[in-house]
Design brief:
Order of helices and strands of chain B: EEEEEEEEEEEE
Number of strands of chain B: 12
Strand content of chain B: over 45%
Radius of gyration of chain B: 14 Å
Distance between the termini of chain B: 41 Å
Helix content of chain B: under 10%
Oligomer: heterodimer
Structural class of chain B: mainly beta
Shape of chain B: globular
Number of strands of chain A: 11
Distance between the termini of chain A: 37 Å
Helix content of chain A: under 10%
Amino acid sequence: KAGVTQTPRYLIKTRGQQVTLSCSPISGHRSVSWYQQTPGQGLQFLFEYFSETQRNKGNFPGRFSGRQFSNSRSEMNVSTLELGDSALYLCASSPGQGPAGYTFGSGTRLTVV
Amino acid sequence: AQSVTQLDSQVPVFEEAPVELRCNYSSSVSVYLFWYVQYPNQGLQLLLKYLSGSTLVKGINGFEAEFNKSQTSFHLRKPSVHISDTAEYFCAVIPLRYTNAGKSTFGDGTTLTVKP
């Protein structure tokens, strides 16, 4: 069974630009969560989508947004990039019902210059 | 709100020695508990989870963890480590009232370094 696929693996963007990251969850999983991982802040929850609806949201500014499609694939968008947005962005999928735990993708390493 | 404290940021240990990675949590409600492992340049992989029942939970790669409700701890142990266990380990919790994995709270991680 294929794992969680995140694309692209690496990105370099300039301050002020916007970026879109993509995540394909495990087949059959309806929940997709996004996390930001940085050395200073650790793993911080961004948001979770379930059946195309945002079900949970972390404490990030409105520049961070996401969506989920009918096939459960999810995208995350960051507008007006700042240097502090440089991080590893991890997508995690789960069945969506019951505390099964996450299956994580390998992440997208975003560098803002 | 929940919080997770991993008491050691780095744990060096020799190959074939036992290891314990400590995790304490704080929560006003009951929680589910998880341990994840992250190898370099990869995402996190679920090692084990405690939902209910026996307080000793066995996971993959020979790891086990013990839930202690009175001490609000969930320490991870392995009786004999290998070089390949070198990685970062994360403890995480989610409240029981969430029927999904979303909005987990993670600790800051413990880097386990196994030396030959």
